Amino acid sequence: MLKNFLLVSFRSIWRNKAFSVINIMGLVVGISAALMIYQVIRYENSFDKFEKNSDRIYRVVTDVDFNGTVIKNDGVAAPVAGVIKDRMPAVETVAPFFINDITRRITANGKDFKNGRDVVYADKNYFDIFPYQWLSGTAASSLREPFTVVLTAGRAEKYFPGLSPAAVLGKEIIYDDSIRATVSGVVADLKQPTDFKYMEFISLSTLQSSGLREMYALDYWNNTNAASQLLIRLHASASAKDVTGELAKLRETNKIEDQTKNVLQLQPFGDIHFNRDYTAEGTPAAVTRLYALSLVACLLLLLAGINFVNLTTAQAARRARETGIRKSLGSSFPQLLLQFLSETLLLTFLAGVLSVLLTPLFLVFFQSFLPKGLTTEMLYDWQTALFLLGLCLGITLLAGIYPALVLARFQPVVVLKTQVQAAGGKVWLRKTLTVSQFVVAQFFIIATLIVSKQVHYSLSRDPGFRKDAIVTVRTPQRELGPGERNTFQEKLAAIPEIAMVSQGGTPPLFGGFMSMTFRYQQGEKEIAQNMELRYGDSLYAKLYNLKIIAGRNIRSTDTIAEWVLNEKAVTSLGFRHPQDIIGVVVENHPVVGVVKDFVTSSTRKEIPALALSSAALWQHRTMHVLLRPSGENGIVWKHALEKMEKAWKEVYPRETFSYDFLDKSIAKLYSEEQRTVQLLNWCAGLAFFISALGLLGLVIFTTNQRTREIGIRKVLGATVWQVVALLTTDFMKLVGIAFVLAIPLSWWAMQHWLSSYVYRTSMSWWIFAIGGGLMALLALATMSIKTIRAAWSNPVNALKSE
């Protein structure tokens, strides 16, 4: 029986090649999208699943409260680890480690290497949390002494190529010419996905024995830094709630007093990869993004299923006689049902095979917003095969059951005596499903236009400062003294292609934050206000064209001596007019000027109260360079950058020169939105492609049914365009209905999305008009493939065929 089912199914698919190809193409797109998104979700959920007793592992994090403004920090004050170890018996393992965000150069085997954030200071407890395989050395002894380092096998091969793990022991590695560490162990690289991708582990005791104790604030309770990380593992009988309560008492026990209220929290280990409030060291996955991708996959599969239902039921009249003959020869209802379902399964299986072949291409096309570690190898394992099998069976049942019921229910007496014109009279169902398809496609088109408009608004909005033709250059973290930096600034200022150079901290707008609490006594009332900070010399405001509306600019000093506030800071401290605050002493320093408000972060956040000051020299680590006009083909900027690199090499001969254009750095703040635009573009394209396939199939079916009518109308004088209008009017009505239904849906969804921006664009009427017009043009173009050809056909041939 199975052989017979398959044989008949192949014959039916081959007999209706056009409709079969349309169905398979739609299913291929839907299944490929589902496969790709399944791999993304599976990959994201595989992070850090290999640690022992991971359900008992937590990261200690800090909520920093600045007078009601809560800032979540994934680090802790350095002394917290020691107190937990000494006073909390519920904690089984305490594993503090410090991320090395200082080192710029590593010297090994006589060669210099650039370094990222993959070096940490840790002790043996780190390797109790993470089960590394030791190739040489041991966890117990390798990090016991100061100035020792453990390498991963990949890093050992990079530094000492050709040497075995045992031979690497005893080799010396130098960090920034200041720390000389001896290799005391080598561990195998972690193969599983993890957010803790460190490759060099310097003994934690090195911080105590080197000049880094102050830099990493090992003795300061008031310094919370993301570089200071703390992992703990609780005893099996311990309660995380009880430990959290004990953490809340640490500051009181140690009599910590400062301007902020820090609250220590326990973050579950499994939450690290999915929590963007406490930023993971890797790339945290947005749960909402995974939900959105899952919804996209379901919608594309739904559209492909609608195509199958529409085209199969539309052809029911053709297969009615087949059903009647089968029933008259003894076929039962269950046999016919299985026969038609087997055809659906065969089509779905063919689409599944093609999807497995095409999904690697999809992974390439979508790589800009897919996890970097996702590879095509995951496509070819038993889990994916099981998912694909379940997916094909699910599609077969959901998309094939209704058409199979329609075909199997035809009565032999009726169909053998008369010609069935429609699938059980359910023409309204096909129209409803077609409208549903175009509602989805129309929604994606409108959403794409609105998100693109918001991105354009964010990038083109006047930020309140100059952002074009500005280059920022970070000087080395460790310098012999400010003389090197001053020399570098002088060399830059002497370059003819450079208009101005300023020493300072971060640019006016960047992705992070620096703040402190300002207190001002207004009569008997004390006003406390959290303020953003920017540091720079006297040229900083001039270079960025910050508009001073009262008082004067700051003077260059080597410490904080005076403030320039923005308008928001003035009003937040209780002053009505900018000139009223000039000369007022705030936080022990006078306010000498007020600048007009400027943007300090993305358009998601409100412009904050802000203070600008000259500061300690160690805070002036960035050179802000204003270039002259770029000239033809950007030749001026090219020469400027070449001369800047030459000046850098003269001052910092062993350091790598790097720079950033400020406008490009600002654009990176909206990379998430730009990826969303790309995703919506693909979704809109794929949704319309599947919908257009279904529309084309229905147009082909309708045109074939009306061949004789078209011939008669042409003989009676109908023009080509009149025939085209006749064939397309009904379908364009469905597209119009879909547009009307998509307007409130897209308006509601995008209004909700835009509400996350403090400064946002408006949803103009012309966006919906363009979306509807674009959909209408695409639908007409799709239908014209068949309708114009039918309208141009010779009526004689049409009438002869009847």
TrEMBL record:
It is found in: Cell membrane. Residues 295-412, 685-795 form the ABC3 transporter permease C-terminal domain. InterPro entries: ABC3_permease_C (IPR003838), MacB_PCD (IPR025857), Macrolide_Exporter_MacB (IPR050250). Keywords: Cell membrane, Membrane, Transmembrane, Transmembrane helix. GO terms for cellular component: plasma membrane. The chain crosses the membrane at residues 21-41, 290-311, 345-366, 386-407, 428-451, 679-703, 715-743, 763-783. It is a multi-pass membrane protein. The keyword Magnesium does not apply. Its main location: membrane. One of its GO terms (molecular function) is transmembrane transporter activity. Residues 20-249 form the MacB-like periplasmic core domain. This is ABC-type antimicrobial peptide transport system, permease component.
